[in-house]
Write a structure and sequence with these properties.
alpha+beta, 4-stranded antiparallel beta sheet, 1 helix, 32% strand
Length: 148
């Protein structure tokens, strides 16, 4: 009788061991091998900014104008600067999904095409700051890594 009790108590233990062994073997087996897949994106952009250094103006309107020297197109973004804020930074080209973005007079969104650009910021109809920059050509390389 004692032997029957011992055998029945070992059965659950043996089942647990067998299940544990099966799980360990399942975890150690390799799954189907696939090559690594990568996605890549490269975006060129530039940050432009203006600031009333001593905060003398209070609230003002900053009109940023960026001109593509290759195509002759100009893109405009107008920002309202509140009193106490003094200045603002903007990103060119800004995504057209944003509420305010760089666009041409006809509403065309700016893009970061390779080439030379000039920019200026106007306050009260006068140029207060400006400069120039160049967007480089951008290329991406993708390497497929085979896991054989």
């Amino acid at each position: 009788m004692r032997t029957a009790t011992l055998v029945s108590s070992f059965r659950p233990m043996q089942l647990l061991r067998a299940a544990g062994l099966a799980l360990a073997l399942l975890a150690l087996t390799s799954t189907a091998s696939h090559a690594q897949t990568w996605m890549v994106s490269t975006d060129a952009y530039i940050r432009l900014g203006v600031m009333d250094k001593f905060g003398q103006l209070g609230t003002y309107t900053a009109r940023f104008v960026v001109s593509n020297q290759n195509s002759g197109k100009s893109y405009i973004l107008v920002k309202e600067i509140e009193k106490g804020q003094n200045g603002v930074d903007v990103i060119f080209p800004s995504p057209a999904a944003e509420s305010d973005y760089f666009k041409s007079e006809s509403g065309e969104a700016a893009s970061g095409m390779p080439g030379r650009y000039t920019w200026e910021c106007q306050v009260g109809g006068k140029k207060v700051v400006g400069g120039r920059f160049t967007f480089p050509e951008v290329g991406n390389d993708v390497t497929v890594i085979d896991k054989r």
